[in-house]
Specification:
With about 350 residues, the chain is mostly beta strands. It has 2 domains: about 1-260, Thrombin, subunit H (Beta Barrel); about 260-345, Pdz3 Domain, CATH 2.30.42. The protein contains 4 helices and 23 strands. It has helices at about 45-50, 85-90, 235-250, 310-315; strands at about 10, 20-25, 55-60, 65-75, 80-85, 95-100, 105-115, 120-125, 145-150, 160-175, 185-190, 205, 210-220, 230-235, 255-260, 260-265, 265-270, 275-280, 295-300, 305, 325-330, 335-340, 345. The strands form 4 sheets. Strands 1, 2, 9, 10, 11, 12, 13 and 14 form an 8-stranded antiparallel beta sheet that branches. A 6-stranded antiparallel β-barrel has the order 3-4-5-8-7-6. Strands 17, 18, 19, 20, 21 and 22 form a 6-stranded antiparallel beta sheet that branches. A hairpin with a 5-residue loop joins β6 and β7 (about 105-115). The longest helix is centred in the C-terminal third of the chain and has 12 residues, at about 235-250.
Length: about 350
């Protein structure tokens, strides 16, 4: 984080707010826009124009005994939907309701990119849904009027809509997930003075033409008090669509995971020299391996594990049915290893 900026609290905006982030703001030059439309844009008009291409997402998180809510953007009439990875992360069940027709759909996850907070979903049996008008985020300039739409508060129905202006480009937001201990840094973000709320994550930020130019992802901490001066961050749509295209093509990479998520059954936190086991879930591959709470995982298949994030990165490259050799040490210093077969687990 740049020392030129006072630390600010930020939150990822699924309705079950589980992540707190610290933003390091990178100064961007003010760009003139000589033909700005009237300000502010009409939120009701944008709901009518863009709302039908929005879905409200509900996530059931069985292992955490929690539920969450977020938003998705319809990319294709067949029910291909773009959203944030953190909206679906940890879900053991997902449903989505189309704003256009009010129908609820079961959801399959086509793939996700945890490091860039992007996921692509498929609504089972969907057909003929209105698709969003995708714009060009490279043309976005400071001062442009925008409206951020989403499932604020997880209430469902027609999306909420908050007008504002773009007040920053190429911003960086670093986030830490309180549940898993994993961290992520999102770059090139669009910053707008739109006080978006929990549940808005994955929703569209649109321009005066109703074109999606960003995907709502995080906001300043004062959003929850409805205070003035709230700020929202969106992933530029060009960046999100490039990742979505890779996922839809079924092309995995160091950051993109395709298909079902591999699951071992441990909850871990950062520890000196490894990932400390905070929980072993009953009936999972880990439970049958002999690993126990407070053991320190040090490697998988010989690849060193130095943090909770390292373990997540290793498993992101695996799929259900793969076997891995897990190495750990117990609090007394004894070294152990076991081979486990991964199973399907919570997504994202």
């Amino acid at each position: 984080m740049s020392r030129a900026h006072r630390p600010v609290r930020w939150r990822l905006l699924s309705a079950m707010t589980t992540a707190i982030a610290t933003a390091g703001l990178v100064a961007a030059p003010v760009q003139a826009s000589p033909t700005l439309p009237a300000f502010p844009l009409d939120p009701a008009a944008m709901i009518a124009q863009v709302g039908p291409a929005v879905v409200n997402i509900d996530a059931q998180m069985g292992y955490q005994s929690a539920v969450g809510a977020g938003t998705g953007i319809v990319l294709d009439p067949s029910g291909v939907v773009l959203t944030n990875n953190h909206v679906i992360a940890g879900a053991t069940g997902l449903t989505a309701v189309s704003v256009a027709n009010g129908q609820s759909y079961e959801v399959d996850v086509l793939g996700f990119d945890r490091s860039h907070d992007v996921a692509v979903l498929q609504l089972r049996g969907a057909d003929g849904l209105p698709a969003a008008n995708i714009g060009n985020s490279a043309r976005v300039a400071i001062g442009d009027p925008v409206v951020s739409l989403g499932n604020a508060g997880g209430h469902g129905g027609a999306p909420s809509a908050v007008p504002g202006r773009v007040i920053g480009l190429n911003q960086t937001v670093s986030a830490a997930d309180e549940l898993t201990g994993s961290t992520e840094t999102l770059t090139n973000m669009i910053k707008a003075d739109t006080a978006i709320r929990p549940g808005d994550s994955g929703g569209p930020m649109v321009n005066a033409a109703g074109q999606v130019i960003g995907m709502n992802t995080a906001a300043s901490d004062n959003y929850k008090f409805a205070q003035p001066g709230g700020e929202g961050y969106a992933i530029p749509i060009d960046q999100a669509m490039a990742i979505a295209g890779q996922i839809r093509a079924g092309v995995s990479s160091n950051t993109v995971h395709i298909g079902e998520t591999a699951f071992m059954g441990v909850g871990v936190v950062d520890s000196n020299g490894g990932a400390r086991v905070a929980q072993v879930l009953d009936g999972t591959p880990a439970a049958g391996s002999g690993i126990a709470r407070d053991d320190i995982i040090t490697s998988v298949n010989g690849r060193p594990v130095n943090s909770a994030t390292d373990l997540t990165d290793v498993l992101d490259q695996r799929h259900p049915g793969d076997t891995v050799t897990l190495t750990w040490r117990n609090p007394g210093g004894g070294e152990h290893s076991a081979t486990v077969t991964l199973v399907p687990g919570p997504v994202g």
